[in-house]
């Protein structure tokens, strides 16, 4: 007995529907319109589509809705545009109210204002919640002015002749060296497979055994390293003694620099700002560049010298100060 559905759809029509299905990627609106023109009712159209498309065929309710839409003269196969959620809250009054709330309390959360008003905060007011930025010191107006003046002075020296400025510059700073300085997290990184657990690192304190190193250097390298003896503190007298040592080494190893005139840059610690140290700099004919107060971010040693020096010492265990000195000078 022949299939009862075969008389509803000829083989040529079935091939045409299959071919359109491949190009339409599952869109059956054309198929239903084509069958409707053949005089098929929704039930017959659904049966033909089920036989032709299998599990990809639309449901009977969908077929009925499409046929009813075609009969009304609506042959569009795209979804009708929908306005979505009405933008009723974006008014000038609401924007002003939110702006006042933020100005009153800049720590207020967006959830406290209301989730639906988040678009007003970002899009209309162009306000974003940012975390604080840590700075070394809270400078007052006078300190900020001195910082600008010191920076301008350094720029003026540099702009006159960059090569001459760098060739004459000598800087110094002090740093602590430890017998046991734990390595950083970056130094402890290991290669692991994606499914391997993360390695653990226990917190280790720096050793109590330490001593202070005063390092004088220029663009050609380290000029002088002095290690503070135990029980001694850096005061104006001790620092003046180091400046005399620096002059002797410059006359021996940096004769051209000493002849041109030394531009000396050091931070403004109490020993450096002491009257005796300032008189010694004048006596040695060192032109001292002003360093602004409370500005550790403008110290060259903290960026170009100490990170590399301490990196090679981190993770090492020394039994004596002599071993630390040998490790630092290698």
Can you characterise this structure?
With 330 residues, the protein is α/β, with parallel strands linked by helices. The chain folds into three domains: 6-71; 94-124, no CATH class; 141-189 and 202-329, Ribonuclease H-like superfamily/Ribonuclease H (Nucleotidyltransferase, domain 5). Helices cover 47% and strands 10% of the residues. The protein has a five-stranded mixed beta sheet with strand order 3-2-1-4-5. The longest helix is centred in the middle third of the chain and has 20 residues, at 141-160. It is elongated, with a radius of gyration of 40 Å. The relative contact order is 0.09.
Ranges with pLDDT <50 over ≥5 residues?
1-9, 20-26
Strand order of the largest sheet: 3-2-1-4-5
The percent range for helix content is: 40-55%
The CATH topology annotation of the largest domain reads as Nucleotidyltransferase, domain 5
Summarize the structure.
The protein is 47% helix and 10% strand.
Would you spell out the secondary-structure blueprint of this structure?
Blueprint: H1 11-24, H2 29-37, H3 42-53, H4 60-71, H5 92-104, H6 110-113, H7 118-124, H8 141-160, H9 162-168, E1 169-178, E2 210-218, E3 221-227, H10 236-253, H11 255-260, E4 262-265, H12 270-273, H13 275-283, E5 286-289, H14 301-304, H15 306-311, H16 321-329
Parallel strand pairs: 1-4, 4-5
Antiparallel strand pairs: 1-2, 2-3
Helix pairs in contact: 2-3, 2-4, 3-4, 8-9, 10-13
Main attributes of the structure:
47% helix; disordered N terminus; 5-stranded mixed β-sheet; 330 residues; alpha/beta; Nucleotidyltransferase, domain 5; elongated; single chain; 3 domains
